[in-house]
Design a protein that fits this description.
With 130 residues, the chain is mainly α. The protein has one domain (2-129). The protein has helices at 2-25, 30-36, 41-73, 77-101, 106-129. Helix 1 (2-25) runs antiparallel to helix 3, helix 1 (2-25) packs antiparallel against helix 5 (106-129) and helix 3 runs antiparallel to helix 4 (77-101). The chain is elongated, with a radius of gyration of 16 Å.
Length: 130
């Protein structure tokens, strides 16, 4: 189950790196507008600083998850799993907040939270059966 958890943590990390790219580097592009429902240039400019900052939150969570994979693969499993759980658990918590507070964004919340959920479940099972 540890390997399964690492795979899902990697997928979650990669997805969050992509979200970072959309929010921090490609904000205002056709792809980011479609993904986040930004309708016009004024809305892009009003939300640019917020999106830039939010993108970095996503990047830092991805770094924690990916660093955890590297550390676990290098032999420090307890530290690696801890880092993966911090990263993916935070991703999952953010997805749950979005799901509960924004009914119109439930599809996005599900997309954002699926890999972290599967990572957390797999990693906790790996810890329990150990």
């Amino acid at each position: 189950m540890l390997i399964t958890g690492m795979v899902f943590a990697a997928l979650a990390g990669l997805l969050h790196v992509y979200i970072f790219w959309l929010e921090s580097l490609a904000w205002g592009s056709a792809r980011s507008r479609a993904t986040f429902g930004v309708r016009n240039d004024a809305e892009v400019e009003i939300t640019r600083a917020f999106a830039f900052n939010q993108g970095f939150y996503n990047l830092f969570l991805a770094i924690a998850a990916i660093l955890g994979i590297v550390v676990a693969a290098a032999g420090s499993v307890a530290v690696g799993v801890t880092l993966m759980l911090v990263g993916t658990g935070s991703m999952l918590a953010a997805a749950l907040v979005l799901f509960v507070t924004s009914p119109d964004k439930r599809r996005a919340a599900t997309t954002q939270g699926l890999f972290p959920l599967l990572a957390v479940i797999s990693l906790v099972i790996a810890l329990v059966i150990g």
